[in-house]
Fold this sequence. Notes:
Two copies of one chain form a homodimer.
Chain A: E1 4-10, E2 12-14, E3 34-35, E4 38-43, E5 46-52, H1 53-56, E6 67-69, E7 74-77, E8 79-81, H2 93-100, H3 105-110, H4 115-124, H5 127-143, E9 146-152, H6 159-175, E10 179-187, H7 198-215, E11 221-226, H8 233-245, E12 249-254, H9 262-269, E13 273-276, H10 282-291, E14 294-297, H11 299-305, H12 312-317, E15 322-324, H13 338-349, H14 353-359, H15 362-367, E16 385-388, H16 395-398, E17 405-410, E18 413-417, E19 420-421
Parallel strand pairs in A: 1-6, 2-7, 8-9, 9-10, 10-11, 11-12, 12-13, 13-14, 14-15
Antiparallel strand pairs in A: 1-4, 2-3, 4-5, 7-16, 16-17, 17-18, 18-19
Helix pairs in contact in A: 5-6, 6-7, 7-8, 9-10
Amino acid sequence: xxxxxxxxxxxxxxxxxxxxxxxxxxxxxxxxxxxxxxxxxxxxxxxxxxxxxxxxxxxxxxxxxxxxxxxxxxxxxxxxxxxxxxxxxxxxxxxxxxxxxxxxxxxxxxxxxxxxxxxxxxxxxxxxxxxxxxxxxxxxxxxxxxxxxxxxxxxxxxxxxxxxxxxxxxxxxxxxxxxxxxxxxxxxxxxxxxxxxxxxxxxxxxxxxxxxxxxxxxxxxxxxxxxxxxxxxxxxxxxxxxxxxxxxxxxxxxxxxxxxxxxxxxxxxxxxxxxxxxxxxxxxxxxxxxxxxxxxxxxxxxxxxxxxxxxxxxxxxxxxxxxxxxxxxxxxxxxxxxxxxxxxxxxxxxxxxxxxxxxxxxxxxxxxxxxxxxxxxxxxxxxxxxxxxxxxxxxxxxxxxxxxxxxxxxxxxxxxxxxxxx
Amino acid sequence: xxxxxxxxxxxxxxxxxxxxxxxxxxxxxxxxxxxxxxxxxxxxxxxxxxxxxxxxxxxxxxxxxxxxxxxxxxxxxxxxxxxxxxxxxxxxxxxxxxxxxxxxxxxxxxxxxxxxxxxxxxxxxxxxxxxxxxxxxxxxxxxxxxxxxxxxxxxxxxxxxxxxxxxxxxxxxxxxxxxxxxxxxxxxxxxxxxxxxxxxxxxxxxxxxxxxxxxxxxxxxxxxxxxxxxxxxxxxxxxxxxxxxxxxxxxxxxxxxxxxxxxxxxxxxxxxxxxxxxxxxxxxxxxxxxxxxxxxxxxxxxxxxxxxxxxxxxxxxxxxxxxxxxxxxxxxxxxxxxxxxxxxxxxxxxxxxxxxxxxxxxxxxxxxxxxxxxxxxxxxxxxxxxxxxxxxxxxxxxxxxxxxxxxxxxxxxxxxxxxxxx
Lengths: 422, 422
């Protein structure tokens, strides 16, 4: 039986059409392609037609269960989160409280905290435990309007535990409505006991982990934390090049804490995205724009760490395609609200309400290589749709700090209705 | 029939006990009085007993409908928002978009925006229209865990329309589960056509509006916007003293844009609270601490206007009892999420997770004179309770930008269950 769904009456239907081949840059980031009193018809998980309510109403024979009246609401592409550390065990709220009371990151590390705390917990967790903790987070993503999530490994740091993280992500992708896109990030940190011999660990990532991850088809991307004290630009390049040889597309955590030529490396190695970029250099920004590297900005991390924000305005003006993400992780950004990240994009990074929508839909899709399938409401694409209970899209960050998601449709199926999972 | 309700199993039951007579200051703001595995029994809208689950389970004869299992959750006093402009007509999202695109406040005023836009809309709205728009906002407050809201007039600016706002607030307080506390704020702005003769307007507030509002028992408090270009300290003092003669307790919008001796005035006039305080002077802070004036801080307004934040840390260290509020209004702070304001308190004002809870419960109650009845979970108080679906209270701002409210009980009755109005 054909699975049908018709949405009518949207006060604004934001299609984001026209950018499936290349990400939107500069002024195109403000071009939402809005239909007023818009309608959308889907069949078997695909978008069949986008148009006016007048055109589509009556044209398609649907029952009342197959019809959503979106009068007074905003209909948008399902949101896409292109940078998360979804699969992990444990939480680190105590570190957060310590920071608020003036303790330094070093105090916290000495108290057994930081990334190594999550690594220990994740190594100790079974597949089932990781799955149970992570699926709760996926449900919250769905409640916040997100229909596609990138998920990185990188809390395993041994072949066994990196594979475990990726296998859990794979199973979550199969079981849960949200589409998961997997990234191998063995080079997330150097294990404590190998601090003095980083090259040994780098070699292991290159010679053991990458080939095995690729062989098992457990990841699409290969990411590395290129930062002083973690992986050098040279090590990062070798890791990313090794991934390319095995078919893994490069991504990079770049220039988060200091300018370290991460953006430049992203451009020269042909990365699909460079992420963080708080301290990216002018040259790096220029290189990214020329090479077409998507800049994935994570303002929640700056907000939560009380740090400076990335220079989104400068990047957009330079022609970088900007995307936004939660960076969801237990240490530096525990939120699961991509709508709130949009607020920060506007209020702390000088982006406009139009740009933050582009940055969480079509440009986010480009950052994880799924723009042919997702990120806009166009004929033939996946029927991933988020309906917000607001009269126009400006309310997304005008009524800030709130979740306005009313309905989420994933592959043509309503999964959130009235703000509740169904 | 007795209306009963028993809550058991709270991983943390935050009572906030011991501060009903005087607000919590300094270290006392960090003393949440937490019971682990806590329980709470209510009858006919009042708290009967607070204790451990072991003690209370079995002691009270309740049916399954009268029992809430809060295992794994945090139980807290219903949140209190001590500063809102709840009753108003219209929205101003277009001004927000203009600001994000670099337009100045003056551009916006010239385009017919600013407070006068809301004044026009509110003057033109009928009682019914104001009521309908405002009750939707009250429902959202409830969904965000708030059980008591202060509501100011001040968009009427004529006797007729100020009375209309206050009458709508009164009706909302009668009809809606949330308790409303009303503040007359005729001195919110000088009407456009009286810009050149402010004294005429001040006299009208003093001689016409205040007596009539007091006679009709439509407000508990009398507030004034003491700021350069609005009301001078001298005018503000006369307005607040006139209110006192009619039994209205002074409040003051103080030192929001520049130091203007508003905090000092609050102390000398015996205000119950001074609000905003972004630019309060050292002397003003000292005076407030000595006089016991609650400092109501509104970090959402600073966040939304991209301004500097109030110096919460300095005020707390100086002994000012700090409360937090949304400042909910259509121009400078359109949010309705007090939980998000807590996030800003921590991440943008240096408050601790404990202090922000005190600031939105018992200290907020003191800011609006209802601490004998609300703001803590203690025997005899109103049974106003918010249950958060988080393992401990640190998650309130650790998992930032999200609404963790699961259940809201107002006067012993569940009004929100599973994050939905019932």
